[in-house]
Write a structure and sequence with these properties.
- The protein contains 20 helices and 30 strands.
- The relative contact order is 0.12.
- Helix content is about 30%, strand content about 25%.
- α10 crosses α11 and α17 crosses α18.
- α11 links the parallel β16 and β17.
- The longest helix has 17 residues.
- It is globular, with a radius of gyration of 24 Å.
- Bound molecules: 5'-O-[(S)-ethoxy(hydroxy)phosphoryl]adenosine.
Amino acid sequence: MTENHETIDALQWEKRTFVPSEAFKKNSLVVGTHLYDEANVDYESFWARQASELVAWQKPWDTVCEWELPFSKWFVGGQLNVSYNCLDRHVLAGKGDKVAIHFEGEPGDTRAVTYAQLLDEVQKFANVLKGLGVQKGDRVNIYLPMIVEAAVAMLACARIGAAHSVVFGGFSSQALADRINDAEAKVLITADGGYRRGEVFPLKPQADEAVENTSTITSVVVVQRGNNPVEMKAGRDHWYHELMATADADCPAEPMDSEQLLFLLYTSGTTGKPKGIMHTTGGYLTHVTYTHKYVFDLNPEKDIYWCTADVGWITGHSYIVYGPLSNGATQVMYEGAPNFPGNDRMWQIIEKYKVTIFYTAPTAIRTFMKWGVEEPAKHDLSSLRLLGSVGEPINPEAWMWYHENIGGGNCPIVDTWWQTETGGIMISPLPGATTTKPGSATFPLPGIGAELLDDEGKHVEHGGGYLTLTHPWPGMLRGIWKDPERFKEAYWSRFEGSYFAGDGAKLDDDGYLWLLGRVDDVMNVSGHRISTTEVESALVSHPSVAEAAVVGANDATTGQAIIAYVTLVGGMEVDEQVLRNHVAGEIGAIAKPKTIYFTPELPKTRSGKIMRRLLRDVAEGRNLGDTTTLADASVVNELQKRASEAPSED
Ligand code: WTA
């Protein structure tokens, strides 16, 4: 028997496997192990080959990778332009008339934007930015709804070497002001408002409030979208369409150094102020182009790709804007809510555009489960050939539901693990090559090194441990804006020489990786370290449960006690005791929740991650701290009320 260094108890083992079908393999880009074999020999040469095949360089690099732990530089000495790679090269190759983005507005308005049109708009807007005094090296803030202009603004920044900092449109004016101040941005690009669930949500008033609390913004550009009334401050505020009407249509893409800052994206740490994650040009573009091509098995001539993320998150940056456009893909971009006007909007869009590749989040999938199979059943989803998942561990039951009800039982699922910090996908199946297991992200991609470590930093062969990344990769963050010490402390201090991602994971007998969530989500119950993810998956595997959030609350007897918050499938009812016994049956009595609260909704961040910290506070009867990143604060108030009323049962 191998020595066991397990640090998190691995309780649940999934046995189902799915082999890529012959039909899928026939047209798939990768069916064997050759990419893995090549990368295993020498990962730097492997990445160098990807960079030269997938990206156009204006000047070749001198050094593939400079690695001074924890700082890496990639393709040093090389020069390229990201917007040239995403636009010009496709137009020059005769693909100018190909649709880059099928935009679907929430009210039902549509716009098909070709590569030539997108290039035209980006050149003009790059000139607009220059006219507002933006220069190479400056920062530009973007606070927009999910509209084509968001991609235009990002690409225009990339064209002239200004770094963008996109702030999700659902964030408050304070969050926006903090991010503008940290980045010292010169220009803010926003909109009057955008559509969400049939209504216009105003953005400009928030932007105005934010700009009041900043000192660096000299101009605000406003896209007209919601047609809601706004105030325009003379000299500072400009309408996008007015500036564009007179902008010069010609703005050549400037060569950028490979390590030129491409963007900042702020991610909230567990404590303290948000971190400005830095991504640069050559390595990032290589990583997202490569992963978008191979993980999604992209055929740019045939596929219609749709990623449901918002451009305000890293998934929107890497897999709506940069990866797909660099690969010359045709994609769908949807502005609004998944349940407007009905709970079948997503499926209606897939049918309408004949989407072939669909990439969404487990939280969305579990919501679709709650709405019932009759919603997707109303539509012809037979165009789909590949499904993806990102953002959280996907419970095996949610995976199976996705596979059967959306994929019609014959689409491979790529469960992609990565982070804002990693820039692109790190752990994922290659759909034509990897036998998948529901709930496992399977293996690190070719070119990526990952291993599990125990508390002492020893290698874990089997069972649970801390997920670490063992060598640099092109898309890795280059640091935290203005705070190199925090970068070292946050990612490189726990284990000597390794990047610690903050996630727990387990390895099964076949070497498959199973993500177990953030390690702060590991509970300690009578000395057993149990991952919240496993208990949640056990709960979700009961037919009545759509979604579950599990937290550990202080307990005088057991150290921590397992508290579960459960949302039921529409119309179903179930007894608490039945669910507790179900968990005991699935993974063992030790994992039985002490108390289960039923709730119509779970509190989530605006990017859809369950706010376990808040639920822990509720379970332990604490006053709630900052709830500003919460999507719907009323959910928590309701839970808090019930927690103070309900006696806990054992
Ligand atoms: C979690 C999103 C399990 C994980 C791209 C990670 C996942 C954090 C998965 C990063 C997955 C993301 N399986 N967990 N497939 N994908 N996560 O920065 O905890 O918004 O550390 O980036 O999401 O979230 P972020």
